[in-house]
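[[Encoded backbone]]
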Amino acid sequence: MLDFFFAMLAAGLNSTGGDVADVAAVAPPAVIEAPAEAAEAMPEALPVLPVPQAPEAVAEAPVVPPVPQGDTLATLPAPPPETPGVVVGSGVIVGSNALSGGVSLLEGTMDSQTQTAPAVPPQAPEPTVAAVPPVPALPVLPAVPAAPAADPATNMAVVPAGLVAEPQTPTGKFTTALEVKPILNATQGNWIAVREYDGKDLLYVTHLWGWRCGLAAIAISVNDEPMQNWPMPPCHTQFATPNAILEGDGAPYLTMRLGSVQKVTIQVVYDDLSMDLASFERGNVLIP
């Protein structure tokens, strides 16, 4: 249809007998209307399509590995080749432009095979503390024995009247109960002895007389007979050995019928007025 329209337009121009330019100068060009059929047959104007735009290239930021933590640098992965300012060496990022968070990772290069940990500064030796010598233990002093209560079996009737407790100041000569009592307690089996001599029984109290300066009285019972007081010689304080038995002090034994002594009970009163009581069978105290 367009070809027909343009053919009609060209035939009209040629029929005027003049140049197209002259016709335009004489009279305004006539508006030629296309036939209705042609107008209807003309297609609608084509829609204007948008011109596609080339997508802008978006530069991706290079991925920089994080800065290693700790005292020793670990081997870092190599960055992509197109990252500017980064040189791939022996597995370590180098160069002043290799930044992570604005911090340079490393200046220069370093071979990971020869990488060593930083030297640990030597620690100062701990000061030596001189050993403190042990404090020697204080010598254990013998406790002052308290005056024991009277044994229920003791016989107070034979205790001399008017006895007074003496001061217990040690003299070094064994003249107090404080000094004598521990010895007599340890040697109680030697308090008495029985000996058969010249057809008689001799009952000895020599051991008790030998420590008599710490005693106030002695009483004795043979074969459960009533207990009787046995006087002791005086303490010879004028000598270095005040407990010595001197001539004139009397004999430290009793003479009895042969074989008559079967049991002996001894009661002692110390000069602090404490008392001890002990009994002995013949067989336990018989000496040759």
Observations:
- The first helix runs from residue 2 to 14.
